[in-house]
Amino acid sequence: MQCEEVREQFADRVRQGIGEPLQSEITAHLVTCDACRNEAEELSAVWTAMGSIPAEQPGPQARARFDLMVDAYQQGIEQGSTPGFWTGMNSWLAGFWPRQPVLQFGLGFVLLALGVWTGLQLRPAPQSSNTARGDELAELRGQVAAMNQMVALSLMQQQSAGDRLRGVNWSYQMRKPGQEVLGALLDTLMHDPNVNVRLATVDALRQFGDQDVVRKGVLEAMRKQESPMVQVALIDLAVDLREKESVAMLKEFTQDQKVDAAVRARAQKGLSELE
Amino acid sequence: MSETDENLMLAVRGGDVAKLGVLFDRHHRTLFDFFVRMTGRRTVADDLVQDVFFRILKYRKTFRDESWFKAWMFHIARNARFDYYRSHQDEAILEDNHADGLQSPSPLPGQQLEQQQQSMLLESALFKLSPEKREVLILSRYQDLKYEQIAELMSCEVGTVKTRVHRALKELRDMFLKLSSEKPPCNVKKSESNLRIV
User: Where are the domains of chain A?
Assistant: First the structure.
């Protein structure tokens, strides 16, 4: 064997992963070649010594953090599948008490409005005032919806990624979000530094997929996102929305070798579903 | 007999999220060790471990019947680390004094102390390698992945992985010797022909 051939086997040799008769051929070469023998012994010594570096152990709070993450995720899923107002309130009571005074004030206002609304429901109304009562109820519902939007917008502007994630999830409570909320969601999708928040935003936008501004935003984000995970989520969303304008971009993805392999594969799958 | 990782992940994919806890208990230490060795920061490693399991939960549907869980998990781990680097480009991930929270040695006598110094020096040398070379060594030496599995993870040929391991080991050896000559207390002897690590 030549020196070069022998050295090509060093990566396997340090792991003792060479079988016969190759092992014997290498050994025979090492007996006669000082340079290869020295290198082989040195690399084996380094490999063995690497085993003396102790493994790092995580702290005891790791499991607790994991449990919290899973709980929060499942809570978000539940909110997404049942976007009713009462369900949202129950979930909030279970553990979404905000820390910021402005948010506490906002939620307090929501509760107050809810109390007034309940009072109006229970009050025996004069027969002649049915129309006026209906107007009042509509107005109060409007106020509750406006407060929901305000809370979502406030949360999405927080420094903490956890708060922003809650802001995104808050959008599940809105059936008809204003342009301001949609704009904030799309802005989060495009620019939020945390990939988990961006992923949650992709899911949140799915419920508003019938709106043009959302469809355009999704296409724009597909063009600019760099995270493969987010790209895959956006491709799934575009396919679910049957967004024909995404076809050209999906083709680009499949042909661009710089694009992550998983993204290319998902784009190919999406194309086959759209075409 | 305990369930395989793959069966547990298939159960998670099917909606049994509680099984993810078993996978976390089995693998979070491995992931933590990988991230600490790659980033040199325990706090960052803590966050990245949680990020990986969040992604596993989020993308559980993409786990295929024929997938090998550990390779799939490390694929996600690599993406999580890349994303972290991308969003923290202004931060120097690795610093000369990389061990922000790494275990500091307690005083030990004689040979134990020498071995500990040697390990620390080797660890420092490992951190001097480029992330690509460090990663291939960590995956093969500490995570015990086969070269075929690393090749699949890195989307390259097995021969390429072996070449990278060979080059990385040589560079590690050279770096170790360089640091040894700068820090005499470490018990490293370079004879005429051989490197000896005592």
Answer: 3-49, 82-170
